[in-house]
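Reposting from the mailing list since nobody answered there.

I have sequence plus structure tokens for a pair of proteins and want to know whether others read the tokens the same way I do. The first protein:
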Amino acid sequence: MNSDRSRIFLITDHCYSVNALRIGCVKYFNARPLIRGWSGEVEFDHPSALCKRLADGELDVALVSSFEFLRNPIYRIVDDVSISSDGPVYSVVVAHRGHFSELEEIELDPASQTAVNLLRCLLAELNVGARLIRNIDLQSVRPAGLQPAVPAAAEDISAGHTGKMPMFQMPHRARLLIGDQAVRFRQTYAGEFQFWDLGEQWKQLTGLPFVYALWLIRPELADAKSIAQRLRELRNENLANIDDVIADTVAGVGDAGQRKELNREFLVRYYRKYLRFGFGEEEKEGLKTFAKLCAKHGLLEKCDLGFDPVVTHETNIQGAPPGCVTLQLL
């Protein structure tokens, strides 16, 4: 067997190259330091689409919303790797005009279960009574079979109409923006809107980091430790060469105007100031707190999270006492 464990893994009873591993990753700038340089094929999509494919067994490994694990804790987690923030995150925000406490409605882009449920928890804890509206015309990802009322409405989020919904520019209406869409909107309309940063609000509420995404591995995948180790090594390599990651990111932006906005100076701040890529004790405590708040506000069944380095799938499902979910860390 090839000794290069970063390229060869055992899956069931056979030996496969990384090209046989079905791996998915969120298609946002914030994931570049975790996936750049992976030698096999990667399927890029929005978080909610990846969560469904992972749950359906169409992917073996995926970088997806942390809420997916809380909702369906059958997976194993790659330890020490996440997309997190310890304060403002910049790219998960509510864009609004006027006083936030006076908002009546917030339009949701449900591309990320985590962002939507984090917003629900924050509004409940802060006693903000804004109504949340799911609008498929505003999603950065749309469920299969659903089409926008106006073509390209999801991309042209600054338009004076929003499909079947009233105008976003009304003073008591706001919008949840995530990922690259949030970055571009902020840089284009910085002088026209205020931005309620969910990472900043979480930090003020709890004093803890917030975990947006984790690498999750299907329970039936063998030799998961080797896969997890390679993903950690890849993160380490990219963070050690972050200037190369930034150069590749800027070069990969197709539109010249967007390249000007997403320049090196911004990405240096984004990767080094706003984002964290570890999953240490503080991040784990933040995830535990998120789970408790989700249960408190009816978004999850009540449970307490524990962390266990044991790899076996049975430990996660059967070994924990009632009301407790043991996270398998690889």
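The second protein, same order (residues first, tokens after):
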Amino acid sequence: MYTGYDPYYLDYGNDRHRRYPRGTINIVFGKSLTYLLLYVVVCIWVLAIVPKLFSLPQVGEPLTILLVLLPYLFACIFMSMTLSGFMTSRESPMLVFVFTSVILLFISGVSWPEAAIPPFWKVVGYLFPSTPGIQGFIRINTAGASLHEVAHEYRVLWIQAGVYFILSCIIYRYQIIRSRKMIIKQYRYMKMRRMLRERE
């Protein structure tokens, strides 16, 4: 009978939870929806309110922009959650952001001609959601492209979102298992110390 705190009892429960890591998927998906709600507000401000305030030209259909924005946000969120598993401090993401922002801007084909970008850097650019996201958004918002005309970028964004979702689940699962092992190890140590004190 369970009479006290036991990490095996609380964290594992039964063998079913060991075999099916549904909890990890729920955590990743739940956090991504929270981030999505936050960034939707930012996107409304940047893409809808600011252009109206400064009378910036917008020729793209709002529905098309929204459909492209959805996989772009998911891809960015899942990629960030994947990279967070490799960060050792709170300051590390800011350093990575500062170091990579200019590079990603250049290889996206906006500030540098796409024809002048070497093939290697083109491949590297498609590892990040910024490249298809920027290219698709510019074609929609400046040339009035439809969703069919940016189908390539749209598919790439969904593929990136799926791949980074799987990777983030793997990273989070590893972190959860590592945390459980540390808690169990600490619990056993504290339990052993308590038993030694009682014997004394």
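Reply #1 (J.P.):
I read it the same way you do. Residues 2 and 9 are 8 Å apart (CA to CA).
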